[in-house]
Design a protein that fits this description.
It holds the Pfam family Bestrophin_2. The chain is about 60% helix and about 0% strand. The chain has about 500 residues and is mainly alpha-helical. The protein is built from 19 helices and no strands. The longest helix has about 50 residues, at about 100-145. It has a domain at about 395-490.
């Protein structure tokens, strides 16, 4: 299957938040919606493609499921419950009272609920930060592009306008670079040589640039790849390996990009290409928000659930699972084996989901698709830069501008020949039309709910439309020119009222 372009870029020999190395940086395929478009290599690795659509029922889907990570634990539980059942059946009855099911079950439920709610809170908070990043990026880019002056007619320097324009483009590129640098920082990829950064910040003097390119890291062997698939902790590598192997200081690349953005804002304040005080305040507020996003996401990354909680929850969970066969044997006998496996599947599944989304910035299937977010920010800013700074007259005075549609198809230029009273009468008529349309829709729903049938419904529609026309003419009448020309003006585009 041919590779398709996508929004995912990863670091050279990068690693995810659990230390599992990924393939070199390349653009991951962008699925078009067919369920067969997902390669097996992508099935259990990397944030899932939000555009991917599967026709399988949700309970049969494996893409995004934690089931592969439970294969070995469930095999162990099956062997354990089989051994306990066989010993109890043929050697010595090991069955005990099921009172522990109630006592320990309550504790396990509380522990798993705490773990899951804490993990999802972190996941949701991370998503909010990235949504805020997209919001602020669009606002700052629009402010700079529209309100930043380009001095094309300067007599002393004919190139000054081009310089202003290229400076604005460079600034917007740095906004995108900030998002990409933040993504790499959250994945413990501290350098500046990645495909989505090298060309956009190569001209900036940063610690990450001076640190050079990291030493090549060997691709994961078969054991580590299998360990990633099966969730074996011993197969996981240190996610901070690149940080530890750096021979020079790597600095804080997103923060350094903010420094350069601040320097640009200072320059436009001083040369008065962005001289309105409110715009200056908004731009500084945007940079402050960028810094808040940087520290907030770093707080989520660097403050996991305390290890004491994780150890205690893991121990309580496994004690409960291992005691299940002893408590179920008296009631279920041979059914103890599948019952124990199913109970372990439920308990371990909830625990693994909490563990996977605890750090939402990694490369697990259920982690946030940071690559897609960055590509979307890039696309949004490209759209902003795709057209010259817009002048309001270019669309307000357009002959296609119909300010009083739907009652009138007349352009704004045509309405300049009318009086203010005519315009206000048309606005009043339009309000009446909108209210009548709402009444029309409500009555249609009521008639259909009462099984009135098509004939009754069509009669209702005709009656309401007749009321709209009569009410509109009466409302706009009152001595205005609009009332007498309502029907003809709407049809011919010369009046306020005729067409709805």
């Amino acid at each position: 299957m041919a590779e398709k372009p996508t929004s995912r870029i990863t670091a050279v020999n990068g690693s995810n938040n659990h230390g599992n190395h990924l393939r070199p940086p390349s653009m991951k395929r962008h699925n078009t919606g067919d369920s067969d478009d997902t390669d097996f290599d992508d099935y259990f690795v990397g944030p899932r493609d939000l555009n991917h659509h599967s026709k399988w029922p949700i309970f049969l889907q494996l893409h995004g499921s934690v089931t592969p990570g439970m294969v070995l634990p469930l095999l162990f539980v099956g062997a354990w419950s089989t051994a306990i059942t066989c010993i109890s059946k043929f050697v010595w009855n090991l069955g005990i009272q099921s009172v522990l099911l109630t006592v320990l079950g309550f504790v396990v439920g509380l522990a798993l609920s705490f773990r899951s709610s804490t993990a999802y809170e972190r996941y949701n908070e991370g998503r909010k930060y990235w949504a805020q990043l997209a919001f602020v990026s669009q606002n700052l880019a629009r402010l700079i592009w529209i309100h930043g002056e380009e001095r094309h007619n300067d007599p002393n320097d004919p190139l000054l306008g081009k310089k202003d324009m290229l400076a604005k483009i460079s600034c917007l590129n740095m906004i995108v670079a900030f998002a990409n640098a933040l993504k790499h920082k959250l994945r413990f990829e501290p350098f500046a040589h990645y495909d989505d950064l090298a060309n956009s910040i190569g001209h900036l003097d940063t610690f990450a640039k001076r640190a050079g390119t990291p030493d090549e890291i060997k691709a994961p062997n078969a054991f580590k790849r299998a360990g990633k698939f099966l969730g074996i902790p011993m197969a996981e590598s240190n996610p901070r390996k690149q940080l530890k192997r750096a021979t020079k200081p790597v600095g804080n690349l997103p923060l350094e990009i903010l420094n350069h953005l601040s320097a640009y804002m200072k320059s436009v304040y001083e040369n008065e290409t962005l001289k309105t005080p409110i715009y200056q305040t908004q731009s500084l507020t945007a940079l402050t928000t960028f810094n808040d996003i940087l520290t907030g996401t770093d707080r989520i990354l660097q403050t996991p659930l305390p290890i004491a909680y994780s150890i205690a929850i893991g121990q309580i969970t496994w004690v409960y699972i291992l005691l299940l066969p002893f408590q179920l044997y008296k009631s279920l006998e041979w059914v103890t084996i599948p019952a124990s496996i199913f109970a372990a599947y439920v308990i371990l599944g909830i625990a693994l989901i909490g563990r996977e989304i605890e750090n939402p910035f990694g490369d697990d299937v259920n982690d946030l698709p940071l690559d897609a977010f960055c590509v979307q920010i890039q696309a949004d800013l490209d759209i902003i830069m795709a057209t010259p700074p817009i002048e309001a007259t270019s669309f307000l005075d357009s002959p296609d501008n119909k300010p009083l549609y739907p009652p009138s198809h007349m352009s704004s230029e045509g309405w300049l020949d009318r009086s203010v009273d005519d315009i206000r009468a048309a606005l009043s008529y339009r309000a009446t039309v909108n209210q009548r349309h709402n009444m029309d829709a409500d009555e249609l729903l009521r008639v259909k709910s009462q099984d009135g049938g098509p004939r009754k419904s069509s009669q209702s529609v005709r009656r309401v439309r007749r009321d709209v026309e009569q009410g509109g003419n009466a409302n706009a009448g009152g001595g205005n020119a609009v009332s007498g020309q309502a029907a003809g003006a709407g049809a011919g585009g010369a009046g306020a009222g005729g067409q709805e």
